[in-house]
């Protein structure tokens, strides 16, 4: 919940050119506007408890705590609530809404009631505010197939991470760490790759992915401990890519083969350049439709094709191919596709960043795929998906029929045994 509201009104980290090294949006504190948004949209504000009550709470909690040392309060911004202050504000909200109005006598009961009310509202209007990172990890990250795909491309991913971890240009930032990826560097990465421009991802989604992917530990109040909380490690970066793979639209292998593309990266660039209208239709039909950020309604196990939603390890592979393809086609293979070897080298990553930071547009071309029948490829995929679903439904019906037959046979056998037992008893 804190992460969700901290990302509101935090800026998009974009400069005038839209591709240069991104600024560092503050997604680690809640602004006054975001706090009031939380109170109003979640129905804490009412006739009995006007907005002014919550403005007072903000002022009280945001005031400097004289009991804290300068080191302990070093990273506490004057006009924003950090996580500890946010928790204090929730307790004060519970007191104002329930205790002072005489509804509840005990503060702990009021807090429990207030939190329950907030969770109910959030689940209805913005499920992203109550997502569980661990639930997502169990469902998508801690899988052998996911590990194998990431390991197969570990060199390219490590190269991209290391180079983007050095994009930040604010040398005065005491929390800067060139070995870790900050939110500004992460936003620069997704922008440079064209994911936002291609309408695969929104800035808000990118912020959420960053916040949810961090494995957070607190070892103290030092700059080093605080910096670790505000950056992605390489392992966090891999999780962030898994999360991206569950949000973006990718072609199925049937569609890739139908236009003779090498992989999803070439397919997406070709479709985007050769048939913009068809690309828009592709995004509408292929973007995953799951609504739970934890992925409970995503086809996590996968069936190869299920309403065009593919298992996560396939979408991860498609995403990596897209990233590698984007970098190579804008550096070493800019003029000749033969120069692409499917692996991002350090020189390629460095040159790619320089091109994008300097304001050069992303090169997206159809190449040999120009003039492909993109609509036929998609229709073929839909037909294949429908056939697989029918086949699966038929198998399910047959399986249910066999189970029912076994149950009937078991019932008959049980009845015969009972009759025999009754006859023996009579004898």
Characteristic terms for this protein:
427 residues
Could you give the topology of this structure?
Blueprint: H1 2-6, H2 32-41, H3 51-62, H4 83-99, H5 107-125, H6 133-141, H7 144-152, H8 154-164, H9 183-192, H10 203-213, H11 223-229, H12 234-245, H13 253-258, H14 264-274, H15 276-286, H16 312-329, H17 346-357, H18 374-426
Helix pairs in contact: 2-3, 3-4, 4-5, 7-16, 8-17, 9-10, 10-12, 12-16, 14-15, 14-16
Description:
With 427 residues, this protein is mostly helical. It folds into two domains: 2-130, EF-hand (Recoverin, domain 1), CATH 1.10.238; 133-375, no CATH class. The chain is built from 18 helices and no strands. It is flat, with a radius of gyration of 27 Å.
Number of strands: 0
Order of helical and strand elements:
HHHHHHHHHHHHHHHHHH
- Total count of helical runs of at least 4 residues: 18
Give the fraction of residues assigned to helices. 55-70%
Largest sheet: none
- Cα(first) to Cα(last) distance is 73 Å
Summarize the structure.
This protein is mainly α and 427 residues long.
């Amino acid at each position: 919940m804190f992460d969700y509201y901290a990302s509101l009104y935090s800026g998009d980290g974009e400069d005038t050119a839209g591709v240069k090294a991104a600024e560092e949006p503050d997604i680690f504190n809640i602004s006054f506007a975001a706090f009031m948004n939380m109170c109003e949209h979640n129905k804490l504000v009412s006739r009995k408890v006007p907005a002014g009550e919550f403005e007072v709470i903000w002022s009280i909690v945001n005031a400097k705590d004289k009991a804290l040392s300068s080191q302990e309060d070093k990273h506490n911004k004057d006009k924003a609530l950090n996580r500890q202050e946010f928790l204090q504000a929730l307790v004060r909200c519970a007191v104002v809404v329930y205790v002072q109005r005489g509804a509840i006598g005990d503060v702990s009961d009021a807090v429990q009631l207030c939190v329950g009310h907030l969770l109910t509202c959030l689940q209805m209007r913005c499920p992203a505010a109550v997502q569980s990172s661990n639930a997502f990890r169990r469902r998508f990250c801690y899988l052998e197939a996911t590990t194998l795909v990431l390991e197969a491309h570990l060199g390219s991913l490590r190269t991209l991470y290391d180079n983007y971890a050095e994009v930040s240009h604010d040398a005065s930032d005491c929390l800067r760490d060139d070995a870790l990826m900050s939110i500004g560097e992460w936003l620069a990465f997704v922008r440079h790759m064209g994911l936002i421009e291609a309408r695969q991802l929104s800035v808000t989604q990118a912020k959420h992915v960053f916040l949810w992917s961090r494995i957070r530990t607190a070892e103290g109040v030092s700059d080093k401990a605080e910096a670790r909380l505000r950056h992605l490690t390489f392992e966090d970066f891999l999780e962030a890519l898994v999360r991206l793979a569950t949000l973006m639209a990718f072609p199925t292998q049937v569609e890739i083969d139908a236009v003779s593309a090498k992989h999803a990266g070439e397919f997406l660039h070709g479709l985007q350049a050769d048939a913009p209208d068809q690309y828009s239709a592709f995004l509408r039909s292929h973007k995953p439709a799951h609504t739970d950020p934890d992925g409970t309604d995503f086809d996590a196990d996968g069936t190869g094709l299920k309403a065009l939603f593919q298992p996560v390890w396939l979408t991860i592979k498609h995403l990596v191919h897209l990233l590698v393809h984007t970098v190579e086609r804008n550096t070493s293979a800019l003029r000749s596709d033969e120069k692409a070897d499917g692996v991002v080298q350090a020189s390629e990553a460095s040159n790619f960043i320089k091109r994008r930071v300097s304001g050069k547009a992303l090169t997206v071309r159809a190449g040999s795929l120009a003039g492909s029948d993109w609509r036929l490829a998609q229709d073929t995929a839909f037909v294949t998906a429908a056939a697989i679903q029918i086949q699966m439904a038929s198998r399910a019906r047959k399986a249910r029929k066999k189970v029912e037959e076994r149950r009937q046979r078991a019932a008959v056998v049980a009845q015969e045994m009972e009759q025999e037992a009754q006859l023996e008893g009579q004898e």
